[in-house]
Amino acid sequence: MLSKLLFRNQDKKQLIIAMIGSFLGMTFLIASIHYLIKVNEFGEGADILGPNTIIVQKQVTTSSTLNLVKTDFSVAEIEKLKKEKFILDVKPVISNNFDVLFATADPLVPKFSSDVFIQTVDKDFLDVKSTEWHWKEGDTIVPIILPRDFLVMLNTFMSASGIPQISDELAKDIKFKLRLSNENSEKEHIHARIIGFTNEVPSILVPESFMKYGNDKYGNLTPQKITQLMISGTESEFGKVEEMLKEKHLESKNSQMVVGRLKSIVGTLILVVLVISIIAVFVSCLVLIQYAQLLITKNAYEVRTLMRLGYAPQQLVNRFFIYFMKIFALISAIGLGLFLGLKFFLDQVFADGGIYIGTELSFYSIGSLLLAFLLFAVASYSNARKGIFKEF
Amino acid sequence: MNITLNKIMPFPLASIQHGEASIWGREIFLEGGKKIMLNAASGKGKSTFTHTIFGLRTDYDGTLLYDTTDVRKYTPEDWTKIRREKISVVFQDLQLFHNLTVRENLLLKNSLSDVYSEAELKNFLAETGIENKWNDKCGILSMGQQQRVAIIRALCQPFDWLILDEPFSHLDKVNSAICMRLINERCDQLKAGFVLTTLGDDYDFTYDQELIL
Do A166 and A158 touch, CB atoms closer than 8 A? Predict the structure, then answer.
């Protein structure tokens, strides 16, 4: 009866318009947060190099070949790069200053050996567990990260030898060894184990301590030049990194840049949609709150009389609050339902385009729905309380 | 519950000359259980009295005490309890919900304390001659019929005092007498008192006390 008295006689046109605005805003809010997170996660874990990380080197030109222009980086140049706002960290890539031979050391695998080039990068740039990525003098096995191209080459060799090709996981179980040597015929063998693969570095990666050991013990005395740098850029600002590379005549492997650029563009677009969604939700909620105010004002006589009859103001506040929370719950449920439908469609579109983003619901998109619900609840309650107690 | 008006002077009536017998500006004691008639001409403040006693107006000098408590100290929660259990009112403008039926108007009040069954409420309507209006919207009733509904609604709760602001202004003598009897019986049942404001008619009832504005 109380509901009939307070809510039956209302012009629901404005309410319906506000509800439509709210649930559309809500749908886009959840969707944009969901896809913003999923796009940022895209590509993560695919490589052992951390996200937003690239290896850069100076462009090799005729001048540099003729030794007119240096291709190595000076300390001042590295420091200058570090000062760029969109660059999080810069570290030199250290190479071997001694001879290295990489060979299979497994009775189940045919003999294979090759002179190789090894490098090391700061472990902060690598997406590996620190327990796996360490070596100290006396350790019999050194962990290594293999260029995927190297595995392809290994598989070609296997295939030619009539042996089945090996997968990433199987390759990690094969025993290998490294032979360190120098011009003085000093040499040492050490076992190696693959712990991961990279598409971005063309050489075998070893822990820094191992590189230092090799360079100290077998390296020649010529000081090492830093010809490659590892740079990690800030999220969604790869466009600026690319611009800087062009400006400073640096180059990087293109595939690294493509993912970064794609993430930047899509991320920015989704961010724009997110801002518009937030504005839409905010405006729609304001209209709903205003509608609630109007409803209380239109029912001022009823509210006043009910309180004179002995109805507690808080009881009436709760009535109005619950009524509008039910409306918002309905809006949220429809918004979530529409988002799930949209997600089903969009995931398909992304997959058809070859972009396999995670399909599970992101916590933040559901969190945004709950946050919007909570904010509306607070605003709705305080609005109802103010309106009812004014009539007391 | 006793009510004391301690030199109450509503601001809008402060500029008017009041007689020596007027309750405004004097110490008036309304003893619980007494049946009181408040007699005054139009514009002397009968509704102001009703609204002040009921806590709807605070624009006055002086103090209003329920037993020994100044009503200005009451919180909205206190007033809710008082309006449910201590004081019931028939307003001059009745304050019914015109979009609701007679049944709904009565049940809305009765549901707060469940003092009567629907059959008993119908019986009240029968006694006042409007039993056929049970499912009619209050908005389409005559003023006299509405007054009877408002009186019955005011009886649907426990109370120490019943304040009636010109409750019979649209009723004939017979219906006024019937309503007066129902009011008196209910007050006796609850050992409650009432204050009935009137333009001079005593409705053939013997009051314990008469006040003048």
Answer: yes
Tokens of A46: 């695919």
- How close is the nearest chain A Cα to the Cα of B84, in Å? 5
Number of domains observed in the structure of chain B = 1
CB contact under 8 A, A311 and B104: no
Mark yes or no for CB contact A307/B97 under 8 Å: no
* CA distance to partner chain B, nearest, from residue A390 (Å): 11
Q: How far is B105 from chain A (nearest CA, A)?
A: 9
Cβ neighbours for A256, distance < 8 A, ≥ 6 positions apart: A53, A54, A55, A200
CATH number of the domain within which B101 lies: 3.40.50.300
Does A300 contact B at CB distance below 8 Å? no
Q: Which residues contact B155 (CB under 8 A, 6 or more apart)?
A: B88, B124, B162, B182, B183, B186
List of chain A residues whose C-beta atoms are within 8 Å of the C-beta of residue B108: 1-2, 5, 306, 309
| A308–B95 CB contact, under 8 Å | yes
Q: CB contact, 8 Å: B107 with chain A?
A: yes
- Which of A5, A307, A308 has the highest number of chain B CBs within 10 A, making it the mutation to test binding with B? A308
For chain A, which residues make up each domain, given as ranges? 2-43+261-390, 53-237+247-252
| Residue A221, number of CB atoms within 10 A of its CB | 5
**pLDDT by 10s per residue, chain A, length 392:** 888 888 877 778 888 888 888 888 888 888 888 888 887 776 565 556 666 677 888 887 766 566 666 778 888 888 888 888 888 888 888 888 889 999 988 887 778 888 888 988 887 777 676 678 889 988 889 999 988 788 888 788 777 877 777 777 888 888 999 999 988 888 899 999 998 887 777 789 999 899 889 888 888 777 777 888 888 877 667 677 777 888 888 887 655 556 666 667 777 888 888 888 888 888 888 888 888 898 999 999 999 999 999 999 999 999 999 999 999 999 989 989 998 998 888 888 877 766 667 778 888 888 888 898 899 999 999 999 999 999 88
What pTM was computed for the model?
0.67
User: Please, are residues A362 and A33 in contact by the beta-carbon 8 Å criterion?
Assistant: yes
Tell me the C-alpha distance between B14 and A80, whole Å: 84
